[in-house]
Amino acid sequence: MTAARSLPERVKDAWASLDDRTTWHVLLLKGIAFEIAQHARNRLALGLVVFFIPFWLALVSSIIPGEPIDFHSWVLRNALRVDANELAMITGGINAVTLIVGFMMFTSMRRSSDFDQRLVYAGYPRWCLLLAKAVGLLLMAGLVALYAGVLMTVFWDPVQPWLLGFGLFIGGLTYGGLGIVMGLVVSNELAGMFVIIMISLVDAMVQNPITNPASDLDLMRFLLAYGAMQAGAVAGFTDRGATAHALIGLVWLAVFAVIGFAAFHRRTKDHTRHTPEVREHAMVTLSSHADGSLAVRSLAGPIILCTQLSQCPAECSAPVPPPAARPRGSRGRAASPSKEDGATRPRTANSAVERTKEMT
Fold first, then answer.
1. Hey, CA dihedral for 39, 45, 47, 50, is it positive or negative?
2. Which of 140, 200, 302, 303 is spaced 20 to 30 Å from 38 by Cα?
3. 23-54 pLDDT, tens digit each
4. DSSP string, 150-178
5. What's the domain range around 124?
6. Backbone phi and psi for residue 228, each to the nearest 5 degrees, phi listed first
7. pLDDT value, residue 347
8. Low-confidence residues of the chain: pLDDT under 50
9. 316: in domain
10. Is 335 part of a structural domain of the chain?
């Protein structure tokens, strides 16, 4: 009991010791912890994983008849005679995994957008944040694919369950990358979810010969879950290898990674940092009176007048006290340079000082 109680305390102390360290691996570890905590707080996604996947597989297993059907396998390069119910289980499993992982990554990106931007402004490396999100995607896709693969073995016995699970994992990675991109480029949360759901449904339906008799077209190779579907069908009904076809989904993942990196860099970029500073110049007019005194009037707001030219620094910072109010009825009274309207608040006017020096 003592060892069991001390383990959380040791973990807590080890985590607290990382607060003052700023090495790249510490920053990466903190980013991964932030990402995992973000997914752990998404209760809707966790509920979908726990309850939706078994419900969806049970529904597919109960309503699809177990009749033989031809599935065109690009791995075997011929039509594969399979059970329609078992093939629908593969399609339903891929559809559920891709939807949930895509939804999890999309929600995570949307919720952490402002936080990521503040971290980057504070000096946090972008690549640490992106690598942490990639690690989070690997973990979520692996856990969801493992859970779905185990549930599928409850309803039927695939020939190669490990290859089937690997296909589910690659499908989850692909749609997780899509979710990251949607979270970065789509401003409306409803629109992003609609895009992910529709792409996943179309992807699963057009590759299933039950819903699409023309599923052997070459166009199917460009679908996101093409590799996962081909590997799943081969793994479920044959003992042939299809790892290479399953890895096709990584091509789409690489495309989404490039788009996501560019979008993340643009979103977290400080657009005001490189704006050139516009310096405001003072605009004054000088007028002389009959007694030889000068009147200084500012045309661009308050300025500072240096009355002791020999001691005036290059950038005068001492404000001139406000001028005294003029008595009524006094006309033509000479105005002192230090008691003119507009000379009450700090602003440098080097040109005015030089002109004053020349005229005096």
1. negative
2. 200
3. 777 888 888 888 898 899 889 889 999 999 99
4. HHHHHH---S-HHHHHHHHHHHHHHHHHH
5. 15-270
6. -65, -40
7. 43
8. 1, 308-309, 320, 330-353, 355-360
9. no
10. no
Per the CB < 8 A criterion, the answer to whether 295 and 286 are in contact is yes
The percent of the chain in helix, strand and coil, each rounded to the nearest 5, is 60, 5, 35
| pLDDT of res. 315 | 52
Position of tokens 């402002």? 114
Question: Hey, which bits of the chain come out as E strands?
Answer: 68-73, 78-83, 284-288, 294-298
Structural domain includes residue 331: no
Q: Which two structure tokens, joined as six digits, stand for 101?
A: 């992982």
Report in angstroms the alpha-carbon separations of 353 from 19, 39, 116, 341, 348: 54, 64, 50, 17, 9
In this prediction, residue 77 carries a pLDDT of 82
The predicted model scores a pTM of: 0.71
Total tally of structural domains belonging to the chain: 1
Pairing of strands 68-73, 78-83: antiparallel
* Residue 337, both tokens: 């340079």
